[in-house]
Amino acid sequence: PAVALATYLAAACVSGIAAPEDKIFVCLQNLAFPNGAMLGNATRTLVSGSGQYAGCGLLEGLFVLLRLGLWASLCFAELPQGVAPWGALARPMGRVVLEEQFIRPSLAVFEAVQDCANHHCAWPELEHLSTSSAMYRMLLLGTFSICGAVHALVVVGQLLLNPTYRSAEPNVELDDADDD
């Protein structure tokens, strides 16, 4: 949680820096409502005209990709003693925990579902988890994997293909359609 909170705090500051005006207000608003820090608040992707957050999204988009990359890299790091010697930060983290707590239970549930499709239904027996916990962890792993990848791909697509998002260039077609 400490890394996630630190990156959201940094994202709120990046959104404040990227905002064309009211920089402190945008930063504080992103601290209160994390959706702005998560997606970027100083852009105008889907709306025409000069709204409250009509600005360049390049900095925020790059920071979203950096944050997602940092979180993914922490999942594969070797941290058997944690990241710091105090509190919850001293527990094992990284690839070993990902494998033991998420990947193995997910694979066991997936195999059980496949066997059940072949009319040999039997829930997996895991040493340290109940079946419902294993299913929940499979849901978490799948949701994070799919949503994280989709989020990264959408941001990359916006940065590469959408000049309104990337550099706050006006969308003439959208403005003309809005006038009609």
Give structural notes.
With 180 residues, the chain is mainly α. 66% of the residues lie in helices and 2% in strands. It is built from 8 helices and 2 strands; from the N terminus they run ααααββαααα. It has helices at residues 2-18, 23-32, 34-39, 58-76, 95-117, 131-161, 163-167, 172-179, and strands at 78-79, 93-94. Strands 1-2 form a two-stranded antiparallel ribbon. α1 (2-18) runs antiparallel to α2 (23-32). It starts with a helix and ends with a helix. Mean pLDDT is 77; it is low at 44-50.
Question: Can you give keywords for this protein?
Answer:
8 helices; two-stranded antiparallel sheet; 180 residues
Concise structural overview:
This protein has eight helices and two strands, in the order ααααββαααα.
Ends distance:
48 Å
Shape: extended
How would you sum up the major sheet? 2 strands, antiparallel
H and E string: HHHHEEHHHH
Structural class: mainly alpha
Question: What's the structural blueprint in terms of helices and strands?
Answer:
Blueprint (H helix, E strand, L loop, with lengths): L1 H17 L4 H10 L1 H6 L18 H19 L1 E2 L13 E2 H23 L13 H31 L1 H5 L4 H8 L1
Antiparallel strand pairs: 1-2
Helix pairs in contact: 1-2, 1-4, 4-6, 5-6
